[in-house]
Design a protein that fits this description.
This protein is an alpha+beta fold. Helix content is 32%, strand content 28%. The strands form 5 sheets. Strands 7-11-10-9-8 form a 5-stranded antiparallel β-sheet. Strands 12, 13, 14 and 15 form a 4-stranded antiparallel β-sheet that branches. Strands 1-2 form a two-stranded antiparallel ribbon. Helix 6 packs parallel to helix 7.
Length: 320
Amino acid sequence: MKVRGSLLTGEVIQIGAVKLDNNFDVCDSFSINIEPVFYKKMNSNVKRITGITEGALRGCMHFESAFGKFLEFCGSEFCFMTWSRDDIPMLKDNLCAHGMSCVSLPKSYDLQLIFNHQVTHSNRQWSLSGAMEILNIEQRHPSHNALFDAINTAKIAVRMDLAEGIERYDGLIRLIELGRKREVFEGFSDLRSAMGDKSLRRLVCPLCARSLGRGKWVGSREKLVTIADCPEHGTLKFVITAFHDGNGFSASRLVMTPLTTFCASMSRTMSSMGWERARSWNLNSACISPKTGWSIIPCTVEGMFGRKRKSMIFTMVPFA
């Protein structure tokens, strides 16, 4: 649905929040239902998941007043912390639909990003209940209620090092975006000049701008791969791919997520399969396969199977 020239994909029908003080302790809570004015007929899936019906919302406060009450609850100095990067864009869409400004909204943090960095060392999406299970937090409140979801989010938040997570948050966002961003270099007359370009091969950490040297590139005529170590941000993989663009040749450069993140993720996977732990991810021996361009990391794991302790040495190939 288009409202005021913008696409509105969903309407806020409930706001729930808990407030954390300067010590990150829960000190207050807020909950309010909102009567929709654009999507008056509720989606059947939303009804089923939330248990909220049109009748329950009839006569409730409208969004403008409800959001005003919410801001009063927030106070003068605050920031938002959510369990998704989708909540704030949805809130902004609703503010615009109701002719309200979203310029004054404070900085927001996706707790799931901090959770992944500090606990799972992965980039995957987790449900609140899944994250609570990982942290052995008892879920006393059902999901898909705005206040209860906020309470559960707060329970996860107090288990995190929030000060460290907030301090490093912008860097974590940039790490996530590394795998999505390609630099494109254009204007090469032939394939050889494209793949041999010095600026294309110069290795720089995209987070701290530290020069990482030239690296040893391997691969084919149209694709080259190397790895380089940043003292602050770990081992990074650089991929160069050349292609014909119609007029000449262009080349793209992609920086992959640090290999250390993969190692931590695989350690948890092996534990779930019965192996107790990955004893030695030998990152110093990480190399690139000249044939495939894959990164190969030797690893030793051990575990108990029945009454016997077994060990296994193998190589992992995290990137294709």
